[in-house]
Write a structure and sequence with these properties.
The chain is of the alpha/beta class and about 475 residues long. It has helices at about 10-15, 30-40, 40-55, 60-80, 80-85, 90-100, 105-110, 155, 160-165, 245-255, 255-260, 290-315, 335-340, 345-360, 395-405, 450-460, 460-475; strands at about 115-120, 125, 130-135, 140-145, 170-180, 180-185, 215-220, 225, 235, 265-270, 285, 325-335, 365-370, 390, 425-430, 440-445. The protein has a 10-stranded mixed β-sheet. A 4-stranded antiparallel β-sheet has the order 3-4-6-5. A hairpin with a 2-residue loop joins strand 3 and strand 4. It starts with 9 loop residues before the first helix and ends with a helix.
Length: about 475
């Protein structure tokens, strides 16, 4: 008797449809070819040397190679400036790629930090691969890392401190470069061993670029610049962090424009003028009491409104800096004294005026630079209205994200770890607008003698000074 036909169970079908992955690796010859395709110089350079030895001769080839090596060595010793600019980054990147960021050593570091895993089918370690290395300076490496499937930016940002310790680095920052590729900045050591000298005072206004005022150096050895027209700048830092450097260095960099009436300074210093009194001859208005500060902000707001009316009348969307329409720059030292710690009525009026200027001053050539120790929302209610925010050394880790935005500390902005002594004054972080990575910089140190030099060279003519004094008298 024939057995009745039974329908296979779902479990049986599922078991039959399972495809087991092979545990065998790709053939070694093909892995070797793939590796050579990614590293063509490894085969190309020896091939060229062998061909040169065969067709030119072993002795001439050896002489040429030794001469090139000697020439590079002499170049680096005789003219370090050009060598460090043109040759050193390439040579350093190649050396570090081979010694630190590839092979078993790199894979072992990632395994120890929880950034690589063992493939259960093949038994080998799947480690993210470095596809590009840049080494702009001796202290900074930038890696492009192709992550493995299942990893994301969050995983890497949570492992930055462990990875830094494993690599013997001072700091690591991570951001997304493109899908599947992360940009990893490895800071091997503190980049600023010595203070940055004060910027030279330009000879005339034509050489001043208000959109790129050189106020120090960044960690890559490039000038650290500030743009003022159409921008507002907030600087946060604890006592002794170097906020004064970011007051006086921009003024030195723009000096002739103050003298020629292209920039008018409106300065509020509610510490009795202790920080700014030395430069008073440069200022168009100078307020050292809450009442004077409210009068100053009111005058700036009224001038901004007048410019708005002029723009509407002439159909203009933006003004250009000129002696008829100078840049009004409002500098506020210890912003918290104006926005939180003063009399309730003064605080309310100051916040209203500041909000008007910060939201409407961009096209009217009216910019604000504020300096504060405690950057919380309760202290600086208008914090989000400053497009450019700078964080010097602070006392709490939470202050970093308050100033630079959520996740800035996880991406490497360790401003709370900057020592508070004079040797580290002026060091801070700013967010790069293109990569969104924190960039470390050091602002130039400006001494009292260099402030006096600025006043002597760039104080406005007597007529403008008298006008400023009269205006301040009316405001007070």
């Amino acid at each position: 008797m024939a057995r009745p036909h039974t329908r296979p169970s779902m479990r049986h079908l599922a078991h039959r449809d399972v495809v087991r992955h092979s545990s065998r690796r790709v053939g070694g010859e093909f892995r070797c070819l793939a590796w050579l395709a990614r590293n063509p110089l490894f085969l190309l350079v020896p091939s060229i040397l062998i061909l040169a030895g065969v067709y030119v001769g072993l002795v001439p080839t050896t002489v040429v190679v030794l001469s090139l090596a000697l020439g590079v060595t002499l170049w680096g010793r005789l003219h370090p400036r050009t060598f460090d600019r043109w040759a050193a980054p390439t040579l350093r990147a190649a050396w570090r790629r081979w010694t630190s960021y590839r092979g078993r050593r790199w894979a072992a570091v990632l395994v120890d930090c929880g950034l690589a895993r063992e493939n259960h089918h093949t038994g080998r370690v799947d480690a993210p691969r470095v596809i590009r290395v840049r080494s702009a300076t001796r202290s900074i490496d930038t890696l492009h890392v192709r992550i493995t499937r299942g990893q994301d930016l969050t995983l890497w940002t949570g492992r930055t401190e462990a990875l830094a310790d494993a690599l013997g680095a001072h700091r690591i920052a991570v951001t997304r470069h493109r899908p599947g590729v992360l940009a990893v900045v490895v800071e091997r050591r503190m980049p600023f061993a010595l203070p940055i000298p004060a910027p030279a005072i330009p000879t005339d206004s034509e050489t001043v670029d208000l959109t790129a005022l050189d106020v120090g150096d960044d960690e890559y050895g490039h000038p650290f610049t500030l743009a003022l027209p159409g921008r507002h700048v907030l600087v946060a830092g604890a006592t002794g962090s170097g906020k004064g450097s970011l007051i006086w260095a921009p003024l030195r960099a723009m000096g002739p424009t103050i003298r020629d009436g292209l920039v008018r300074l409106h300065v509020i210093d509610l510490k009795g003028g202790a920080e700014t009194r030395r430069g008073a001859p440069l200022f168009h208005r100078h307020a050292t009491t809450p009442a004077d500060a409210i009068a100053l902000l009111t005058a700036v707001r009224d001038e901004m409104k007048a410019r708005q009316a002029h723009m509407a009348e002439h159909g203009l969307r933006r003004l250009a800096v000129s002696t008829d329409m100078p840049l009004h720059l409002v500098l506020i030292d210890e912003l918290a004294m104006l926005t939180a710690y003063g009399e309730r009525g003064d605080v309310r009026d100051a916040l209203r005026l500041l909000a008007e200027i910060l939201t409407q001053g961009r096209a009217c050539l009216t910019s604000v630079m504020g300096y504060v120790q405690e950057p919380s929302k309760d202290v600086v209610d208008v914090r989000e209205l400053f497009p450019t925010r700078i964080c010097l050394g602070v006392t709490a880790s939470s202050h970093v994200d308050m100033v630079l935005g959520d996740g800035a500390r996880e991406r490497g902005a360790l401003a709370d770890a900057i020592p508070g002594d004079l040797d580290h004054a002026g060091i801070g972080y700013v967010i790069d607008q293109r990569s969104r990575l924190p960039i470390r910089f050091r602002a130039a140190l400006v001494t009292d003698d260099e402030i006096d030099e600025l006043v002597a060279a760039c104080a406005p003519p007597a007529g403008q000074v008298l006008h400023a004094i009269a205006t301040r008298g009316e405001g007070s």
